[in-house]
Write a sequence for this structure.
């Protein structure tokens, strides 16, 4: 099923869209409630998120820690910028691998789509090189790993 | 992720280089032919070609005095496979989210058992 789209926009953006069967209220909650985030934001099979901090208010902290139980681990930190329940979240995040990657500004929108939701996630990286590096490195989180349908680029 | 792929994605960060690849996707071309549609000098195009060649995405052959460049399909395929893998990992997260959402809306709503 190809519900997911993933593409680059301009030189510094990455845009992901995905439709969900649930209403925006539920999808928004699943993106902000730590107990729910821990259930799905995991990347490849075998990884878990033992630590999940998500203070869903402006300036609130974000910290996700992942491990594969074999000694591999990494984490992400960030801050919420603005939240418009249940339609929009703006936050900043960076991976620590272990050095921090440049800030990724993320806007996530949840628009009603029939009985469900159309989510549009738009990442803004500081420059094209950072976006390329992110693309090249990939991120186990899957989420950050971006991008771009190659056909769209060439 | 191999260093080769790393270089390949970095090479693609530049819009002119993406346009050059788009042109080469239609068939081989010389530096002069490539410079034409762009507002760039031949040395500038050569510079971009060097980056693409180092990244394993473009190669050249000698044809008399001409040196036409073409895409290296193995390089493009490797990038495509990597992107497919990333897309799959991302898709996996959201497939899990589908399950979470289904379980959230379960109790005493009219919704039936999950799919």
């Amino acid at each position: 099923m190809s519900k997911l789209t993933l593409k680059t926009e301009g030189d510094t953006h990455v845009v992901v869209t995905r439709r969900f069967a649930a209403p925006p209220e539920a999808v928004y909650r699943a993106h902000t409630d730590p107990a729910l985030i821990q259930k799905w934001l995991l990347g490849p099979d075998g990884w878990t998120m033992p630590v999940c901090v998500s203070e869903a208010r402006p300036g609130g902290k974000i910290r996700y820690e992942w491990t594969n139980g074999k000694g591999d681990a990494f984490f992400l930190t960030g801050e919420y910028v603005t939240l418009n329940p249940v339609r929009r979240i703006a936050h900043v995040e960076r991976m620590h691998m272990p050095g921090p990657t440049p800030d990724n500004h993320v806007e996530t929108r949840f628009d009603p789509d029939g009985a469900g939701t159309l989510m549009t996630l738009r990442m803004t990286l500081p420059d094209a090189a950072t976006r390329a590096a992110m693309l090249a490195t990939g991120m186990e989180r899957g989420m950050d790993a971006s991008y771009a349908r190659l056909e769209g680029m060439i | 992720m191999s260093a080769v792929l790393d270089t390949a994605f970095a090479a693609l960060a530049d819009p002119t280089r993406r346009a050059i690849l788009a042109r080469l996707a239609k068939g081989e071309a010389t530096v002069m032919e490539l410079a034409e549609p762009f507002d760039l000098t031949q040395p500038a195009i050569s510079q971009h070609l060097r980056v693409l060649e180092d990244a394993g995405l473009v190669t050249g052959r000698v044809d008399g005095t001409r040196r036409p460049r073409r895409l290296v399909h193995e390089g493009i395929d490797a990038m495509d496979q990597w992107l497919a893998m990333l897309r799959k990992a991302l898709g996996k997260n959201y497939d899990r989210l589908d399950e979470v959402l289904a379980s959230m809306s379960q109790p005493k709503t009219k919704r039936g058992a999950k799919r």
Observations:
- Residues 139-154 of chain A have pLDDT under 50 and may be disordered.
- The first helix of chain A runs from residue 24 to 32.
